[in-house]
Amino acid sequence: MQLDCAGKFLDLSQPLVMGILNVTPDSFSDGGRFLGCDTALQHARAMVEEGAAMIDIGGESTRPGAAPVSVQQELDRVIPVIEAVRAELPVVISVDTSKPEVIRAAVAAGAGFINDVRALRAPGALDVASAAGVPVCLMHMQGEPRGMQQQPHYADVVVEVRDFLLTRAAACQAAGIPHQRIVLDPGFGFGKTVAHNLLLLKHLPILAEAGYAVLAGLSRKSLIGSVLDLPVDQRLAPSVALAVLAVWQGACIVRVHDVAATVQAVRMCAAVRAVE
What we know:
By secondary structure, the chain is an alpha/beta fold. The chain has helices at 37-49, 71-88, 100-109, 125-132, 157-174, 194-202, 204-208, 222-228, 236-248, 259-274; strands at residues 2-5, 8-11, 16-22, 54-58, 92-96, 113-116, 136-139, 182-185, 213-216, 253-256. The strands form two sheets. An eight-stranded parallel β-barrel has the order 3-4-5-6-7-8-9-10, surrounded by six helices. A two-stranded antiparallel sheet has the order 1-2.
């Protein structure tokens, strides 16, 4: 399976690494580190050299408790970086946003992939994404970032997340987004307890078997801190382990902060899976 990302193609027969580029002051792991366009471009360049197939550029933090930002703030943060990365690097650019205005401007600036934590539920987002003609990643989130970690509850987290994502995928197809341009993300850490996250990873094949490409984002997340009692800056090894587990369970794309180590690990995982 290939994803056509505005003329740049991704081969999903091998696991791909999406590098995270947060141009925000308050993201949970790297907030404020890459706010300037030059600094952001330098980090994107390093991640591509390390093997990132995609760079995911976001201008609004969605960490637990995060406050929303205005459309103009988000545009001011992400559009110059997208333009700079597009001008220099051959990598697929993903925009991490829920706002239709940002989706439209980002794709016009060079983004070839839409990564939306709200699964295109914002008013107008679905129509704008359909018109953009690029792949979309639909993520599950219970609630909104500001309060999503306040006692999340499910009767059956695996079934409910799968059903939500399949419903959103059907809505996308009804709006003119073809099946092959849809990627699903269970939303690890977005309105889930530790037990919910572990169950979703253990049963990820149930989502992967639905016939859509699957993206998993587990890098440096609080799940690791809860299980291993590690601060954010000491979560490299468990983040890589979770990326490998996600690929083994059927994920095609893993979204990470630490590209080089993850690329090596998932390539080894893919080599083992390919042996008959």
